[in-house]
Amino acid sequence: MASVNKVILIGNCGRDPEVRYTPQGTAICNVSVATSSRRKDRNTGESVEDTQWHRVTFYERLAEIAGEYLKKGRPVYVEGRLKYGKYTDKDGIERNTVDIVAEQMQLLGGREGMGDDMGGGGGMGGGASRGGYNRAPARGGDDMDAPAPAPRAAAPRPAPQRPAPAPQRPATGFDDMDDDIPF
Description:
The protein is mostly beta strands. The protein has one helix spanning about 60-70, and strands at about 5-15, 20, 25-40, 45-60, 75-90, 95-105, 130-135, 145.
């Protein structure tokens, strides 16, 4: 049976990215991403915001792109997988870690440098400069990243010359139920 380890985050960068390189020249970029949800407090009835912080790690070309374009506060879409680890801190205590290894990234919001507004109005999906980047699966050690292809505009269709007459259907009593289907 196949298994799935997939994480999708839409949130804001909590700090500027940190890019470093291994001795072999592989770029690694770490950033924290904050996601928030709202709920009502049972006791007071007030709306409470619950913020979760996620450690995200980018590798290779995607790390270089993240290091160049991500900034503190910038909205971002990240798709990747969970990676669990352990380490021993300076006091000798064993600690557990949870990281998200990014495989795709989409910059959200408006263009930087176009004023102080970074997307405006809380809209996380609307900007003119959304950039999508993928981390291609490894193929014989060559793991290059490339920007996602830009969506193509559909070619305009010519208008039909004259409308075709609607086909006559036999009366079944169910003709008006299309609007009542809940899905």
